[in-house]
Amino acid sequence: MFIHHMSKSNQSSRYCRLGCVFFCLLVSFSSAVVAQTSQSSLLDSLDNLGEGASLAEPAQALTLEAAISLALERNPTLAAARREIEAADAQILQGSLRPNPEFVYLAEDTRSISKTTTAQLDVPVETGGKRGARVEAAVRNKNVAVSELTARQLKIRASTIAAFFDVLAAQELTALARETLTLAMRASDIAGKRVSAGKISPVEEIKARVAEAGVRLSLTQAESDLRNARRRLSAQWGNPSPRFNEVVGEVDRIPELLTREKIQSRLMLSPVLERAQQELERRKSLVAVEQSKTLPDVTFSIGMKRREDVTRDQVLVGLTVPLPVFNRNQGNLLEKSSPIITDFTTICEQLQDHELVCGSANKLFKNHGIIIQTNCNYTHVEKMLDDKIVILDILIILFFNIPFLILSFTFFSLFIYTKRL
What we know:
alpha+beta, four-stranded antiparallel sheet, 9% strand, disordered N terminus
């Protein structure tokens, strides 16, 4: 009887060990699969990010709409902001997960006669709305990331438009410098021919050559400014070497400026102010998370205990409740509550800057008028330059036809004199 009991207990112990080993292997395999899947997903995301950053604009003329689309799609700063939103989604998923149960196996004494084996399953239960508070905080964090992305998009859009018009103005200035150089070269040639004909002093030719050299220097500077402006524009979508041939647009057509009333009506919808409000809500949700941690979590336990000396199994049922005597999460709660006052003060300061924003809008209207006046002056100067070119062409024609005109006038005078005789 005793031998039969010993074999039976050994068999049950063997089954228990096999079950524990199988459970550990299952947990290890699941962890490895999850880790491998997460690593593969991360590597794929990094590969996709690298491919998106390596794309370049087509080698053709570039319009303002195409430049804005390229910047909004491939700007590295916006790509990082989009990754922040994906990270916020991952935080929402992590916050919605419940705590894992624990499996405990305990063996007391190594002798088979007095050995005691315990298998227990502990299931923690969250109290105080911790799971909902974590999800709410993660959602608020995502809202902050979305507001940050919107603000960055508007900033990149504005900088792209400014860089586009810089390139457009640099193209016009370069073309104007080339035309001026052509005019200066023709003036130098004319001065050289007049010096050869003995009409003017050689000093005038030297002055014309010096003016031509100055125009060449201006052309070199204009071409350098054009290259820098092209690089600044292509940098908006992460390309250090621009491939587009030129930008297409009208330099004298300034984008329409909003009225003062529309600017004032959009102040409350400012991305910076919206982000500050979302940050305030996120801080409040973090305080709620820390507040929920003041209530301890309970743990329910259920298991089986086998004693070999009495040859019977015992059912174990337990409840674990931590006593919040010393640590009630006071420090973390105070830490998360302090920045709320700062965020609220920041929002109040931004609301008080209403007059400052209106003053900036008035200054913007003033600058807009200056730009229009400058554009009119530029058009007037360009028209005067065209008129000078036409006058110079007429002078060139007259210069080369002066001997013929003198000879014709002489023959005409001789003909009249002969008729009178």
